[in-house]
Amino acid sequence: MNKGNIGLWITGAFLLLMGWIAFDMLRPVSGGGVGSETSISAVRTAKVPVLVEFYADWCGPCKVVGPLVDEFSREVKGRAVVVRINIDEDPQLARSHGVRGVPTFIAYKSGRETGREVGGIPKERMRELLGL
Questions:
Q1: How far apart are CA 64 and CA 97, in angstroms?
Q2: Taking the complete model, does pTM exceed 0.85, yes or no?
């Protein structure tokens, strides 16, 4: 490195840092999808029962029960709402709801928790949690 080029190196490093900061600020916020705080606030105001599943992509039982949850969501459309929340994308939300293991299913009616189940469950148990 030539002493005459030190100014160019500093300018280049500064521009690289500013570009990285701008890129980082433009990324979507973690947890902004289906499992966002907005979805949980919808639970409190929903007129129909709501089933929330806390899951993780690395969880074996979650991978098994995931397609069942999606299928169940389609079956109860209009009579209930199913929300899936990835605990890796929104760990604070999982902690605030006392989730200690995945998958965890929490049922709500009129904004109040009415049931909770930890582990993979069949669709029939999901129906029972919602009272359908």
A1: 23
A2: no
Do 51 and 17 share a domain, yes or no?
A: no
The total domain count for the chain is: 2
Q: Which domain holds residue 26?
A: 1-30
Q: Which helix (H) or strand (E) holds 21?
A: helix 6-26
Known catalytic residue at 116: no
99 and 121 co-located in one domain? yes
Catalytic residue selected from 43, 51, 62, 87: 62
CA angle (25, 41, 130) in 5-degree steps:
130
Gyration radius of the chain's alpha carbons: 22
For residue 123, what pLDDT is reported? 95
Three-point CA angle 119, 121, 122, nearest 5°: 165
CB 97: neighbour CB atoms within 10 A?
A: 16
Task: Say whether 62 is catalytic.
Answer: yes
Identify the active-site residue in 40, 52, 56, 59: 59
> What are the DSSP E strand ranges found in the chain?
50-55, 81-86, 104-109, 112-118
Give the mean pLDDT of 42-67: 91
